Amino acid sequence: MDKIDRQIVTLLEQDARQSFAGLGQKVGLSKTPCWHRVRDLERSGVIKGYRAEIDSAQLGLQVHAFVHVTISSPKHAEFESAALRHPAVLQCFTTAGQADYLMHVLVAGISELDQLLRMEISRMPGVQRLETTVCMKTIKHRAPMMGCLR
């Protein structure tokens, strides 16, 4: 990626709905060359897709929790498949440390979190232990990735 590609990605992170003409004007290109660059960034996998940012609270989903999951060794593939399929699991990461996985889950309330943990996640393949942290307040939601590059 060159300097113009980085500018394009930075601007698209801020607003993915802007026109190619407007985007091109901001980076010093006309509409068609800008479109070609965006298409190339999509094809190369730098840009993986576009999506709307939804306010979970407006949908009645108020409780974010982070669940450290320890599983038995031979069940990693089965656990990961179950995590991928579960609609309340927003993100799931393998980790280095005491737990094997870190899940970010989203539910309506504490009783729904209790149900999710005791009746669903704890019964996923290989689960031996859960440790949960409930988010009280989000301080920083999502920073632009391009800001991580120096």
Record field, number of beta strands: 4
**Assigned CATH architecture of the largest domain:** 2-Layer Sandwich
Find the CATH topology of the largest domain.
Alpha-Beta Plaits
Task: Give helix % range.
Answer: 25-40%
Q: Quickly count the domains.
A: 2
Secondary-structure element sequence? HHHEHEEHE
* Mean model confidence by pLDDT: 95
CA gyration radius, whole angstroms: 20 Å
Total helical segments = 5
Description:
With 150 residues, this protein is α+β, with helices and mostly antiparallel strands. It has two domains: 3-44, Winged helix-like DNA-binding domain superfamily/Winged helix DNA-binding domain (Arc Repressor Mutant, subunit A, Orthogonal Bundle), CATH 1.10.10.10; 56-134, Lrp/AsnC effector binding domain/regulation of amino acid metabolism (RAM) domain (Alpha-Beta Plaits), CATH 3.30.70.920. It is built from five helices and four strands, in the order αααβαββαβ. The protein has a four-stranded antiparallel β-sheet with strand order 2-3-1-4. Strand 2 and strand 3 (101-107) form a beta hairpin. Helix 2 packs across helix 3. The protein starts with a helix and ends in a 16-residue tail after the last strand. The mean pLDDT is 95.
Layout: helices, strands, pairs:
Elements: H1 3-14, H2 20-27, H3 31-44, E1 63-71, H4 76-85, E2 89-94, E3 101-107, H5 110-120, E4 127-134
Helix pairs in contact: 2-3
